[in-house]
């Protein structure tokens, strides 16, 4: 009892072949899209890698690139098979490769499913990497004379300007680190000496933020120094006033950017899985319809097409039996030995 | 004596028609590219319209868009003519429209050359417009509570950050205007009162710049107040230190940006001029070759194609005579008037003559 049988005449077969050919080429375009998204994601991770301590994981974009290339190859091959399917001579040379090809498609779908899962799960890893990386970036902001870290200031400033954020959780992270290098501090000044002596580690801490935290949309010229001191500025109360610096933290801003990218890629991969399954079903129908033609010489004859030759349960039973026999080929058959001894 | 005659066999005519069909479709595509370039340039100019005083420079993208659309239409017509050219029944209806087509194509080429010239000629006008627009922008920076000007601050800040520039000519332009609104000034403070009294217009002037002038690539945290006061900052000399502000003025930055944009469209425009000219010349050859072939006894035989039927001077003379005869249609011809009065006299004499023998 075949699973989901459909009767085919010549016209239906031709329409199926044409439709399937178009769907395969659509899948090739989707494969190219996945490949370019993988490259885009990789470039974005590279651009922000300084914010993540250079130990971000490139697993997802690498997988995407691989999957995109595979999709292009597999679907182009499927399209070629469809193109040749209505010509019995050309189709005959593809026939033996069809069963392994369908198994390959199954494996490819499983890989796509794994990639989609990773897209959703790796967001946690990105979040943790960002938290750690931004903390270090803020710490090394002042080290513009240390080789290997001299561009940290520029990168962090440009990131804060681009993503409209300030600090790690919020702007108060800047109050806890010394972000002005000692080269620019007058150590003989009393004010400076007070600040340096005010904490255990001898850091010059202040209630100020860098200029890149300033919000251009605020009506007041940017107040970036003495933020907690109400008397330092006219008509200013830092508790109630809407500050004219960005209040969002950069970890949240960067994470929402990456997570929206990864979520949309994941959704696209799920759509690709559905498209690939449709391709596989169509190809199975087409091949079975071509194989069951009663009179191969007469193209007008009717034929049957199906998804599985027997029902779902029976197919699974067969598969399990096959796996068991595969395991048993290595075992010695006891009955056989005893007969030969006798 | 025809100008630049070329012999055409039937096969050569067919090849010319096919080649020209392809060339005209390529020209249609390039016309689309020119239109898109015009749209892009116009969008970029409109984005910064707030810091521009006049819109004279907009004539460049307007002409580009117009020429792009016209070129798409003209070259599509050329491809239709090619398709009909090898069919003797359909070709004759194109006789008069082709004259108009040649005129339009020549006008398009002239307009494209004019665009290239204009984009260089209008650079001065663009700079003037930017100078006035930026000066106003800097003056109204503090007016974030005045309707109509409340976004001037945000516009100027974003402009300075994006184009990495400060002020109109340089950062010192900010020293000459009050860019801190009176709402945020404590008029009881001695420092504020001193600064206000220090100038005639009672403006609060300071040697400081807004935060958007800060350069992120500088190794030192941004110094933007008390810029001329060496004692205000540690290890700081106003004269010799490389300030950690942007040194370029925004007028220069914007002019350079737009000039670069227009220069990059230059090669595209030049290639469109070349393609349009080649379509023009090839279509003229095809037209003359097919027309001379149609009057031959054997339409499939050899014919000659030329650019002008007679030489250049003779063609100009002919055109002059044609133009003068067209003008003369409206005038009364004095010779014809005399001739008709003589004929009337002669008729009158004839009428008078017969009655005398009768009587």
TrEMBL record, chain A:
It holds the Pfam family Tetraspanin. One of its GO terms (cellular component) is plasma membrane. Its main location: membrane. It comes from Cyclopterus lumpus (Lumpsucker). This is Peripherin-2. InterPro entries: Peripherin/rom-1, Peripherin/rom-1_CS, Peripherin_LEL, Tetraspanin/Peripherin, Tetraspanin_EC2_sf. It is a multi-pass membrane protein. The gene is prph2b. Belongs to the PRPH2/ROM1 family. PROSITE patterns: RDS_ROM1 (PS00930). Keywords: Cell adhesion, Disulfide bond, Glycoprotein, Membrane, Transmembrane, Transmembrane helix. It is found in: Membrane. The chain crosses the membrane at residues 20-41, 62-81, 101-130, 254-275. One of its GO terms (biological process) is visual perception.
Automatic annotation (TrEMBL), chain B:
Residues 336-359 are annotated as: Disordered. Belongs to the PRPH2/ROM1 family. It is a multi-pass membrane protein. This is Retinal outer segment membrane protein 1b. GO terms for cellular component: plasma membrane. Keywords: Membrane, Transmembrane, Transmembrane helix. Its main location: membrane. CDD domains: peripherin_like_LEL (cd03162). It comes from Cyclopterus lumpus. It is found in: Membrane. The chain crosses the membrane at residues 20-40, 60-78, 98-122. It comes from the Eukaryota. InterPro entries: Peripherin/rom-1, Peripherin/rom-1_CS, Peripherin_LEL, Tetraspanin/Peripherin, Tetraspanin_EC2_sf. GO terms for biological process: visual perception. The lineage of its organism: Eukaryota, Metazoa, Chordata, Craniata, Vertebrata. The keyword Hydrolase does not apply.
């Amino acid at each position: 009892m075949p699973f989901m049988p459909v009767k085919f005449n010549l016209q239906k077969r031709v329409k199926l072949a044409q439709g399937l050919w178009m769907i395969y080429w659509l899948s090739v375009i989707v494969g190219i899209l996945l490949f370019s998204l993988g490259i885009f994601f990789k470039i974005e991770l590279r651009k922000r890698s300084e914010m993540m301590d250079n130990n971000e994981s490139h697993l997802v974009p690498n997988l995407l690139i691989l999957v995109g290339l595979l999709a292009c190859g597999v679907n182009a091959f499927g399209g070629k098979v469809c193109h040749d399917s209505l010509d019995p001579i050309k189709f005959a040379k593809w026939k033996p490769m069809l069963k392994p090809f369908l198994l390959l498609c199954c494996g490819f779908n499983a890989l796509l499913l794994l990639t989609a899962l990773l897209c959703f799960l790796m967001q946690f890893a990105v979040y943790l990497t960002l938290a750690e990386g931004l903390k270090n970036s803020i710490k090394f902001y002042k080290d513009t004379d240390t080789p290997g870290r001299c561009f940290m200031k520029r990168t962090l400033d440009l990131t804060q300007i681009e993503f409209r954020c300030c600090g790690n959780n919020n702007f108060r992270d800047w109050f806890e680190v010394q972000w002005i290098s000692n080269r620019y501090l007058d150590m003989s000044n009393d004010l400076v000496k007070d600040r340096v002596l005010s904490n255990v580690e001898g850091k010059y801490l202040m209630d100020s933020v860098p200029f890149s935290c300033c919000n251009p949309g605020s009506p007041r010229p940017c107040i970036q120094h003495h933020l907690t001191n109400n008397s330092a500025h006219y008509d200013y109360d830092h508790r109630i006033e809407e500050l004219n610096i960005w209040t969002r933290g950069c970890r949240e801003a960067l994470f929402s950017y990456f997570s929206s990218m990864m979520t949309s890629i994941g959704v696209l991969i799920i759509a690709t899985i559905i498209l690939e399954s449709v391709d596989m079903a169509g190809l199975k129908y087409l091949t079975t319809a071509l194989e069951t033609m009663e009179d191969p010489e007469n193209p007008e004859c009717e034929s049957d097409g199906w998804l599985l030759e027997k029902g779902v349960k029976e197919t699974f039973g067969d598969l399990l039996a096959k796996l068991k026999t595969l395991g048993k080929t290595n075992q010695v058959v006891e009955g056989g030995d005893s007969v030969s001894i006798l | 004596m025809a100008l630049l005659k070329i012999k055409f066999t039937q096969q050569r005519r067919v090849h010319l028609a096919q080649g020209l069909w392809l060339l005209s479709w390529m020209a249609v595509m390039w016309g689309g590219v020119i239109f898109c370039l015009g749209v892009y340039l116009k969008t970029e100019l409109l984005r910064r319209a707030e810091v521009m005083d006049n819109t004279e420079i907009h004539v460049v993208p307007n002409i580009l868009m117009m020429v792009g659309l016209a070129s798409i239409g003209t070259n599509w017509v050329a491809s239709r003519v090619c398709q009909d050219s090898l069919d003797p029944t359909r070709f004759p209806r194109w006789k008069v429209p082709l004259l108009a087509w040649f005129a339009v194509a020549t006008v398009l080429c002239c307009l494209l050359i004019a665009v290239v010239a204009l984009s260089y000629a209008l650079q001065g006008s663009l700079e003037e417009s930017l100078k006035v627009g930026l000066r106003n922008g800097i003056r109204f920076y503090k007016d974030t509570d005045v309707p109509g000007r409340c976004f001037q601050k945000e516009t100027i800040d974003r402009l300075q950050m994006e184009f990495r520039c400060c002020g109109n000519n340089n950062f010192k332009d900010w020293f000459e205007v009050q860019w801190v609104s009176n709402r945020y000034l404590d008029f009881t403070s001695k420092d504020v009162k001193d600064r206000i009294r220090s100038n005639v217009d009672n403006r609060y002037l300071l040697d400081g710049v807004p935060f958007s002038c800060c350069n992120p690539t500088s190794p030192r945290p941004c110094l933007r107040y008390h810029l001329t006061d060496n004692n205000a900052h540690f290890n700081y000399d106003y004269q010799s230190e490389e300030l950690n502000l942007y040194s370029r003025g925004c007028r220069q930055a914007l002019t350079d940006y737009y000039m670069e944009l227009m220069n990059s469209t230059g090669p595209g425009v030049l290639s469109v001029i070349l393609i349009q000219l080649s379509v023009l010349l090839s279509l003229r050859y095809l037209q003359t070759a097919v027309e001379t072939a149609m009057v031959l006894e054997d339409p499939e035989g050899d014919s000659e194609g030329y650019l002008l039927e007679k030489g250049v001077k003779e063609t100009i003379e002919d055109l002059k005579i044609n133009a003068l005869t067209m003008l003369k249609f409206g005038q009364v011809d004095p010779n014809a008037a005399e001739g008709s009065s003589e004929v009337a006299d002669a008729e009158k004499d004839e009428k008078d003559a017969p009655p005398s023998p009768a009587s």
